[in-house]
UniProtKB/TrEMBL annotation:
Organism: Cupriavidus campinensis
Statement: the UniProt record of this protein carries the keyword Signal: yes
Keyword presence, Signal: yes
Region forming the signal peptide: 1-22
Keyword terms of this UniProt record: Signal
Record-given protein name: Copper resistance protein CopC
Domain of life: Bacteria
Length: 125
């Protein structure tokens, strides 16, 4: 009986490890820094000199129509903030040019059209 319980526990443990990795961040699709928050994947990219934040929901581009947000970038002792507004499709774009130098930390707060607010943190490499 003890062997049966041990085998059952081992099978359960091996099966459960797949569930733990189900919501890991996928590789960058747009060439930026990737993080997950609230079951969504966010990718922060420097696009044409301005930060852009792409949002995906389980391999599906999440519409950001009606969303708004704020991006704060900390680089050394410099703190820069800018508003994020919907671009086309699944991207929020910064209103102002904000550099994203290596070593900087960034925090994006996004409020979607349904009222859900998500905060995501990035370390720029």
């Amino acid at each position: 009986m003890k062997k049966l319980v041990a085998i059952g526990w081992a099978v359960f443990t091996l099966g459960a490890t797949g569930l733990v990795h189900a919501h890991d961040a996928k590789p960058a699709q747009y060439g930026g820094a990737v993080q997950t928050a609230s079951d969504l994947q966010f990718e922060l990219v420097n696009k044409d000199g301005k930060p852009a934040l792409y949002v995906d929901d389980h391999d599906t581009k999440k519409s950001v129509g009606g969303a708004k947000g704020k991006l704060t970038v900390l680089s050394g002792t410099t703190k820069t903030e800018t508003a994020l507004t919907p671009g086309s499709g699944n991207v929020l774009v910064a209103n102002d040019p904000v550099p994203l130098p290596p070593g900087a930390k960034a925090v994006a707060t996004v409020t979607f059209a349904d009222g859900k607010t998500v905060t995501v943190r990035f370390a720029i490499k």
